[in-house]
From TrEMBL:
Taxonomy, superkingdom: Eukaryota
Ranges annotated as biased composition (Polar residues): 122-137
Stretches assigned to the RWD domain: 9-111
PROSITE patterns, per the entry: RWD (PS50908)
Signal peptide: none
Biased composition (Basic and acidic residues): 154-165
Any Pfam family: RWD
Protein's recorded name: RWD domain-containing protein
SUPFAM superfamilies: UBC-like
Disordered: annotated span: 122-176
């Protein structure tokens, strides 16, 4: 079998295995992404595998440079890629994309054990990261605007019993 025939067969197998799996994405007939972990999981990551012309006789290109992985430290990304490359060397000459994705799923916890869990919080349009067990002390509670009784009455007179303004309250009278 030629490399192209191997690639076509593996492509069909991948499409049938991952049909309906939203974590799998075929970027092109030789490039695939798979998200390890559920949506919203702080330790989830994305692996991208691209087949060179002579794949599976030569190793596929494994990348973790997707924007999805921007919260993961570069040392952990490199460590995951290194472990996947070790797995590639064992499977060289055979179709291995599925094997690599499954290997990453099985070893997700050990891959990400040193990754701190970051919580993204937005304070005054700036993004800061912190650990979940320590609350940032610089964060201040926002004060609600206090209304006087007359201001509240005027607001209540303009709105219905649900607090919504009536339809057309801001319409402009075009015909005069």
């Amino acid at each position: 079998m030629t490399a192209n025939e191997d690639q076509e067969m593996e492509l069909e197998v991948l499409r049938s295995i991952y049909e309906g799996d939203e974590r799998f994405k075929e970027l092109s007939p030789v490039s695939f992404q798979y998200r390890i972990g559920e949506n919203g999981d702080p330790k989830a990551f994305l692996i991208e595998i691209t087949w060179p012309e002579t794949y599976p006789q030569t190793a596929p290109v494994i990348s973790m440079n997707a924007f999805f992985n921007n919260t993961i430290s570069s040392a952990i990304k490199q460590s995951i890629v290194d472990k996947l490359i070790d797995e590639v060397e064992v499977n060289l000459g055979t179709s291995m994309t599925y094997t690599l994705f499954e290997y990453a799923k099985d070893h997700k916890e050990s891959f990400m054990e040193n990754q701190p869990v970051n919580i993204m919080t937005s304070v005054n349009n700036s993004i800061s990261t912190g650990t979940p067990d320590t609350a940032p002390s610089s964060k201040k509670k926002e004060k609600k605007e206090q209304l006087t009784k007359t201001q509240k009455r005027k607001l209540a007179d303009k709105t219905d019993h649900k607090g919504e303004l009536p339809r057309g309250w801001n319409w402009v009278d075009v015909i005069k």
